[in-house]
Amino acid sequence: MAWRLISMSKPSFPPSFSITNAIPTRNCNSFSPSSILPLFNCKRRKKLRKKLSSPRVKPIASSTPRPLPYLDAIIHRDSLFRFISRTRCFLSHQPLHLISLSAAGKLHRELGFSRGRKPSRFAARHPLLFRIFPHPSPYGPLHLSFTPLMESLLSEEQSIFNASEADRVTVIRKLLMISSGRRIPLAKLHHCRHVLGLPDDFRDRVRKYPDFFRVAVDPDGRHVLELIEWDPALAVSALERDCVADEHRVRLTFKFAIPHGKDLGLDEDDERRMNSLTTLPLISPYTDGSELKPWTVEAEKYRVGVIHEFLSLTVEKRAYIHHIVEFKEEFGLTRHTYHMLLKQPRAFYLAGTEMNWAVFLRDAYNEDGTLIEKGPLVLFEEKLRRYALMKEGEEEVERGVAGAIGV
Questions:
Q1: Where in this chain does the record put each PORR domain (predicted)?
Q2: pLDDT at 8 over 50
């Protein structure tokens, strides 16, 4: 009986003893209470932690001390409407604008949906733009296609391209003027056609302007667009136009640090010359940058000016890094482009993930994230996104309201 009384009595522990310390733990990284899946075993938690820290999802370091949520929301919006943009581009090149669901399930990259998911689920989120219907075919009974509303929107987009063709020709001429050799491969322009506001058939349209462009073939077989004639009236950058209106603001926008001591003993003229180096004496992107010595402040100013001019030529005054790097040979960019842009927080804003990040022109956006100057293509994209979020029947209400106010 003595051993039973001992086992039933309350054990006594030293004051520094803790029950949690006595519980053996696994050889695994501890997880915080805020972990999204705390009940996973060690192996799955390690795999999840590694996935969340990958460059695909890890946010890029912002160029400003405080993030700008209204610009970050634009990147998130692009990811939400990726299926619409890519499927619209892919189906518009298919015969009858349709594709079987069995074939669409294998084209997750082309259609912009997640691997392993069904495209029918993404199409069902936008019933006003996409439809799934039976169609006789040897590949399957169901097909994905555009709705009549989407077909009318595509026709409206083509009319906008036709009306703004002269402006897009000017954009291509200016882009060729800032590129080295005054020539750009047509494949690179096709890759960046959406950010530049170019139609899918722009490679055929440029042949209508023999006074401006010439299509040549490189020895490697690439088709290259060349500039025929230099126009001095177009060789004026957006920075130069802004500098005429407000020179003080433009000079404060950019800063190029030069390491030096606190007191150099400079006179007034030398100090003014030093300030001109650390701020922005305008180096036009339409000058020949090949004459500048690499890795100098002047060369960095030139590259910053080229990227600024390129972004000003885009439709939404922003571009992803793969659009900018596409012209790295033409713009003379280096592998330090990210660090170069990161040093200019007043001019550019970087947002997105480490694998795919975007560059914004901050002066082109209001505080609520809207463009200050909206072109016809920007207004069309906003209209398309409104229809993408509607359900069946809601578009008739919007059309009635628009007709009542005379829009």
A1: 69-392
A2: no
Please determine, for residue 339, whether its predicted confidence score (pLDDT) is greater than 70.
yes
Tokens of 71: 């610009």
Q: What is the 3-state secondary structure (H, E, C) of the chain?
A: CHHHHHHHCCCCCCCCCCHHHHCCCCCCCCCCCCCCCCCCCHHHHHHHHHHHCCCCCCECCCCCCCCCHHHHHHHHHHHHCHHHHHHHHHHCCCHHHEEEHHHHCCCHHHHCCCCCCCHHHHHHCCCCCEEEEECCCCCCCEEEEECHHHHHHHHHHHHHHHHCHHHHHHHHHHHHHHCHHHEEEHHHHHHCHHHHCCCCCHHHHHHHCCCCEEEEECCCCCEEEEECCCCCCCCCCHHHHHHHHCHHHHHHHCCCCCCCCCCCCCCHHHHHHHHHHHCCCCCCCCCCHHHCCCCCHHHHHHHHHHHHHHHHHCCCCEEEHHHHHCCHHHHCCCCCHHHHHHCCCCCEEEEEECCCEEEEEHHHECCCCCECCCCHHHHHHHHHHHHHCCCCCHHHHHHHHHHHHCC
Tokens encoding 285:
């992107």
Please, are residues 303 and 327 in contact by the beta-carbon 8 Å criterion? no
Would you tell me the crossing angle of helices 297-313 and 238-245 to the nearest 10 degrees?
Answer: 90
Q: How does pLDDT run across 214-264, given as a tens digit for each residue?
A: 999 998 889 999 999 999 999 999 988 887 777 777 777 887 765 555 556
C-alpha 249/C-alpha 272 separation (Å) is 17
Q: What φ, ψ does residue 28 adopt, rounded to 5°?
A: -150, 155
The answer to whether 314 touches 195, Cβ cutoff 8 Å, is: yes
Phi, psi of 365 (to 5 degrees): -120, 145
pLDDT in the model for residue 168: 95
Do 344 and 304 meet the contact criterion of CB atoms below 8 Å apart? yes
Strands 183-185, 213-217: parallel, antiparallel or unpaired by DSSP? unpaired
Residue 170 binned pLDDT confidence (cut-offs 50, 70, 90): very high
